[in-house]
What we know:
Strand content: under 5%
Number of helices: 14
Distance between the termini: 64 Å
Order of helices and strands: HHHHHHHHHHHHHH
Oligomer: single chain
Helix content: over 70%
Amino acid sequence: xxxxxxxxxxxxxxxxxxxxxxxxxxxxxxxxxxxxxxxxxxxxxxxxxxxxxxxxxxxxxxxxxxxxxxxxxxxxxxxxxxxxxxxxxxxxxxxxxxxxxxxxxxxxxxxxxxxxxxxxxxxxxxxxxxxxxxxxxxxxxxxxxxxxxxxxxxxxxxxxxxxxxxxxxxxxxxxxxxxxxxxxxxxxxxxxxxxxxxxxxxxxxxxxxxxxxxxxxxxxxxxxxxxxxxxxxxxxxxxxxxxxxxxxxxxxxxxxxxxxxxxxxxxxxxxxxx
Length: 274
């Protein structure tokens, strides 16, 4: 009888504890705490969710450990790597791309382009466009692979036709510089304009000003983590801004007739984008 009671209690104890620590109605979640810049509380809540096997919480926790700035917070790259790898090993594509980027950056873990390639391939196999773009960059620069501009072009094109902004910029540059494809400034201008038009000039200036103002007004006496999950959105905005600059420079090299031809081509290409 006593054994039966013990087993029942032992079985239900983890469930009771889990329900106790999970956010209650009205209580902030892991990601909400991050957005509200409550970094220490976020680590506590994200840790509980991560321990249950939630890959999104594991990714968030990894980002907190690797990217929280200022105050008396000390980054923990070991834990950052372990949690991101745990999420990636569960097949989460965001984590797989993040593992590749970790190996390419060489900060959280030693740089290893071959390991990066493995993780990009895992994500790309599931049609993750950041994974496809990552492979394009590896072949473009010959990182961890033999440099192959034609293969890089193919990957850029694959992702561009699925409306991946950074790849559209890469494709435009490939046409501009004759990398993996015959030089064609009309096509270069068309692809760069498709990427550049995703945010208006006014919106882009507003984004930049807002970012610069927030950086200037940061309270560096306290930990700052509200942007640790914004990598992809920042990457998109940066890519659009870069496309605008490239387009401005390229415009000086084209005639009015070529620009009009490029603009018409861009409209045709948009119809092929999924």
